[in-house]
Amino acid sequence: MNAMNFLQAAFAGRRLATLGFLWLVMIAVAAIAAPLIAPFDPLEIDPVGRLAKPGWPNLFGTDHFGRDTFSRAVYGARMTVIIGTGSVVVALLAGGLIGMVSAYFTKLGHFLMRGVDVLMAFPALLMALVLITLLERSVFNTILVIGIVYATTTARILFGMTLKLKGEVFVDAAVCSGVGNLSILFRHILPNLVSPLLVQASFIFAFAQLQAAALDFLGLGLPPEVPSWGNMLSEERIYVTRAPWLLIYPGILIVLSVFSMNLVGDALRDSIDPRFKDDISGV
Amino acid sequence: MALLEVQNLEIAVSAKGKLLPVVQSVSFSVDDNETLGIVGESGCGKSLTALAIMGLLGGTTVRITGGSIRFDGMDLLTLSERERRSIMGNQMAMIFQEPMTSLNPVYRIGDQIIENIRQHQKMTKAQARDRVVELLSLVRIPNPSERVDSFPHQMSGGQRQRVMIAMALSCDPKLLIADEPTTALDVTVQKEVLDLMADLQTRMGTAIILISHDLGVISETSNKVAVMYRGRVAEAAETESLFLELAHPYTRGLLNSMPVVDSDVDWLEAIPGRVPTLEEELTGCAFHPRCASATELCLTTVPKETEFKHGHSVQCHFPGKVAP
Question: A180 in contact with B at a CB cutoff of 8 Å?
Fold first, then answer.
């Protein structure tokens, strides 16, 4: 009930954000029910029907192995959700922990945050590339690498917020009542960070898609047989003149999804923190 | 031996590689059933002294550099973290200046007090909750059995301060430190909160340290007063003795700068100048730049603590000879 009220408040009067939200719901449904929705096996090769135009029964056409592009796109939604959720979990756990602990235990924090600073000095994609070349291509490693890249920004944000909260009188009051350090950090400070964490999560989710697509496109992301939108772009790029639909559909899916995630993230942020409300908040 | 004895407490701030003293040789004691008032302008070290007693000066920039704080026979400065935690909130408690921020906004007030109780006493949740309702009615929160489940933002400033008092009293502490508990509240609520504290003291025999910059509040509530100026106790005495005969020109200045409601004056006297900053090197008495009767001696020599009358100590070269 509470969640419904919150969503209603966040999306009231924001038509574009509501559309984005609905799109994300569709992606989620596709991810969960992929085997039911996809008309074909995404891995099934059909040498005769390769590079078929969009039509019936191959809605989005077929690729150069004759695999059904629509089915692959539906299964790709699954990867989108897995990569997004995984990266968010890794980034928030690692970054959140580093940021909070650094802010609370300042001596250790100097040490940890300088490490974070060094990592942040690398462009995000470059760092992901370096890490992924050290590891083997797999879903788990892709999640890990993207998570680590965004853990740095998360650590920075939470470092600042924890530092601010640490100076609040209620923390002193908790110290005064004899509560231990860890309990103060996780029971008194952490609950106050839930809303910024939520917003951060929504943006990491969106950026992770771009990062994953970029890695896939460079051939360093998910293993090539895994149906993901980035892989579809990467594999079919040489057919751009002969079968442009092979690139158009996954491209549109990536763009729409990332755009929707950003819109939803904006809406959530505005509803949590009214200071960010600006002129374009009505869209 | 008194309940709390602070002796020659020294606190320093490290800035740009130097140690700047902010509290210097501060000594006082408080006993059961007693209220000690600490007065002074902003930045004179009164809050720092309180934080030092509560062990909240954990940072690296501000630290205790000397002296001792003894509570109930224990040396608070050498206690282990664990032992200290068992005393905090249990035998010693603190009320802060800002009732709006001293409660955690994401927890119900009842849960916060329950946490404090269960930190120190073996009680089931239900028992602790009953105790909280009892405490809330003790601090005169209307409808306590419902307000237990309120969030801090659903309460007014005065109510929140009362919740803080309830929390501070939840384990029947022997010592209660109140750092400007009424500064952020309006006058009518102020009186209620002070009355409440006095009432609880007579009921439980708690020792109270009341920090304020309001001499009026101090004179009404305290048995003893310590006037602080730039990190030192300028004058300390029993309340009556202090107001009967002022020995330090700073106390005189503070008193003169209080508006008197029923007198017909159109000029309020203020102490000229301001409290010197830490960086300013001062020789002699810290008050001499602002003192009307400062002499050559005041410029060169720091006054020693002298006994002006019995139980009335002062740090001034010319105690009692103050221009009125």
Answer: yes
